[in-house]
């Protein structure tokens, strides 16, 4: 990955920042994209202080226009984008009967539209060059129903199938597109779901009341666990892997 440009969205978040670090450590020039400009700045400074080549680009992935302009700016400033990681995401939980249209729309705007906007803008640049690799960070909830997560799970299923179908289209250009499906991972998104009844212990041990079997490996994933899987799928070690979903959940969905 030496000196190749990697665009990572959600780079100020737990998993996105770990991906930025992991790719930076492999020699990539990282274009770190997030809508939270302050947190992004903090993250970029931290990574740069560790000697990594990272530049921040504030951008809201729900805006197709902003995404096109940001990708063009990254190409102009850093060079051809070789890798794209769609990690920006939002979670809002609630049972369908009480779910608001606003929450539904907000989830799809980021988790689905955002993935479309980035992937389209980046493959337009990759296709003439006949090279590139894309990974979308979806979720194990895309394939296993979870209590109060209908909107989120549906958005991740959409992002996952979108990415695989995109992979089919761009395979003829030598571009690969894969999905990493994390389970519970130690980031602000996970802790935002925790309360007296749902917490680290119940997540690991399982909870029959919500039809969750727990995590066979008996631990929550670290952001690095997920980032390592992303880095592998982007790398030449995965040169013949495309349209694949790599689940990183410690066995929580029993390999389904
Ligand atoms: P996080 O909340 O720590 O980070 C998400 C980042 O996305 C934040 O920095 C946020 O500012 C950014 N973002 C949100 N909306 C955006 C927008 N419109 N434009 C640009 N940036 C935006 O969450 P995380 O745990 O790091 O999640 C990363 C990805 O992994 C998400 O797609 C999430 O759905 C997925 N995931 C997380 C877990 C988990 O347990 N943490 C499990 C499965 C999947």
Walk me through what this model shows:
The structure is a single chain. This protein has 256 residues and is of the alpha/beta class. The chain has one domain: NAD(P)-binding Rossmann-like Domain (Rossmann fold). It is built from eight helices and seven strands. The protein has helices spanning 14-25, 37-49, 64-78, 101-129, 150-170, 188-191, 200-205, 223-234; strands at 5-9, 29-34, 54-58, 81-86, 132-137, 175-182, 245-248. A seven-stranded parallel β-sheet has the order 3-2-1-4-5-6-7, with helices on both faces. Helix 1 crosses helix 8, helix 3 packs parallel to helix 4 and helix 4 runs parallel beside helix 5 (150-170). The longest helix is centred in the middle third of the chain and has 29 residues, at 101-129. Bound molecules: nicotinamide-adenine-dinucleotide (NAD). Nicotinamide-adenine-dinucleotide is lined by residues 9-10, 12-16, 34-36, 60-62, 87-91, 110, 114, 137, 139, 182, 184-185, 187-190.
Which tags fit this structure?
256 residues, binds nicotinamide-adenine-dinucleotide, 7-stranded parallel β-sheet, Rossmann fold, alpha/beta
Question: In a nutshell, what does this entry contain?
Answer:
This protein has 256 residues and is of the alpha/beta class. It contains 8 helices and 7 strands; from the N terminus they run βαβαβαβαβαβαααβ. The chain has helices spanning 14-25, 37-49, 64-78, 101-129, 150-170, 188-191, 200-205, 223-234; strands spanning 5-9, 29-34, 54-58, 81-86, 132-137, 175-182, 245-248.
């Amino acid at each position: 990955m030496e000196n190749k440009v990697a665009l990572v969205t959600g780079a100020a978040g737990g998993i996105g920042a770990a991906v930025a670090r992991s790719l930076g450590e492999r020699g990539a020039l990282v274009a770190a994209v997030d809508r939270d400009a302050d947190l992004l700045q903090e993250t970029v400074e931290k990574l740069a202080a560790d000697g990594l080549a990272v530049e921040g680009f504030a951008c809201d992935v729900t805006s197709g226009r902003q995404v096109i302009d940001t990708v063009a700016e990254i190409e102009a400033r850093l060079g051809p984008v070789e890798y794209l990681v769609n990690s920006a995401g939002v979670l809002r939980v609630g049972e369908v009967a009480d779910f608001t249209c606003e929450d539904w729309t907000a989830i799809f705007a980021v988790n689905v539209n955002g993935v479309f906007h980035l992937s389209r803008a980046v493959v337009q640049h990759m296709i003439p060059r006949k090279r590139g690799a894309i990974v979308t960070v979806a979720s194990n909830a895309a394939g296993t129903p979870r209590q109060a997560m209908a909107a989120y799970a549906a958005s991740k299923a959409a992002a996952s199938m979108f990415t695989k179908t995109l992979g089919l289209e761009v395979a003829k250009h030598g571009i690969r597109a894969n999905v990493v499906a994390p389970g519970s991972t130690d980031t602000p998104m996970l802790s935002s779901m925790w309360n007296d009844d749902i917490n680290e212990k119940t997540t690991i041990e399982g909870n029959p009341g919500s039809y969750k079997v727990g995590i066979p490996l008996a631990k929550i994933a670290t952001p690095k666990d997920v980032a390592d899987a992303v880095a592998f799928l982007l790398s030449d070690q995965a040169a013949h892997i495309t349209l694949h979903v790599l689940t990183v959940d410690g066995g929580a969905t029993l390999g389904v």
